């Protein structure tokens, strides 16, 4: 902890444990303690740690061709763009690669400027990243306020409120950006017809609809993309987190007329589409298919949702697939998280009364049971009856 404080900036606070190795959903710290990892690098290590397919793909690539820039094509960037295009079910889909979620949303923001309009609608409490453009889209005052002035022309409306969205959209609106399920806000699921209505309003006013699937994409919810439950399609999808299976990779996928807005010279990223990161992403997609993980995610999610709801003190359990939010009647989330860590379970508290659980997609039923057991004990010790 002292070394961290002396050499790293204080923006994260100081971590209490140092992780040194991992296999699947088990990680070990520098003192030799083991933990069940049900946060997975913040919804990122979709195949867990040291998955053989990722290890093999990345090792092979790093000894073959490490980096080339976008002045040149390479097999992985072509293969991955085609795989993502296929996953959208839309032949017009075109991919831009970057290195993070914030960058994917920055790319969407710049793309929207190419419509010739500049007004944007986003939602309150949303999270779209920390760079100045992405932060301007983000709807959390605590993260925004220290960095004002932010971008102008962005309106934030209540998430899930279709009427408020309708009022905020005009012919001057370039884009609407929404998380299909809000992750950082505490896993908030909107009313079932919300995305469909937003799609209608966007169509009526000629507005680009962007679904930020950075957290809900890549199988996390039991679908490839977190919006699929809604039956509507966006014009733009942003991805990162799970895409690289632990390596830094983001993508902004545009479909239909939006796919032709960027022309040569409009945007770029030196590392975007890097051969090693794209090798990892190809291994992620292939393994999710081969191991039938989308169905597995539904089953494990169902189990956790049911079991966690039975714990005394838990007031609500919500989410989709293996993105689960859980609220308490009392503000004990930080204490419960701390106790879980002591008992060997890593989870996270995005708020004082909210817990987020987002493990690897390939967790076993035994690991899910162990999570429930440790969690039940930690809640029991902290909840005042
Ligand atoms: C994490 C997240 C981001 C930001 O991703 P970074 O890789 O940290 O820049 C953006 N949008 C959503 C929905 C996220 O969950």
UniProtKB/TrEMBL annotation:
Coiled coil: none annotated. GO terms for cellular component: mitochondrion. The keyword Amino-acid biosynthesis applies. Gene3D superfamilies: Aspartate Aminotransferase, domain 1, Type I PLP-dependent aspartate aminotransferase-like (Major domain). Keywords: Amino-acid biosynthesis, Aminotransferase, Pyridoxal phosphate, Transferase. CDD domains: OAT_like. It is found in: Mitochondrion. Its cofactor is pyridoxal 5'-phosphate. The keyword DNA-binding does not apply. It holds the Pfam family Aminotran_3. GO terms for biological process: L-arginine biosynthetic process. One of its GO terms (molecular function) is identical protein binding. This is Unannotated protein. It comes from freshwater metagenome. The lineage of its organism: unclassified sequences, metagenomes, ecological metagenomes.
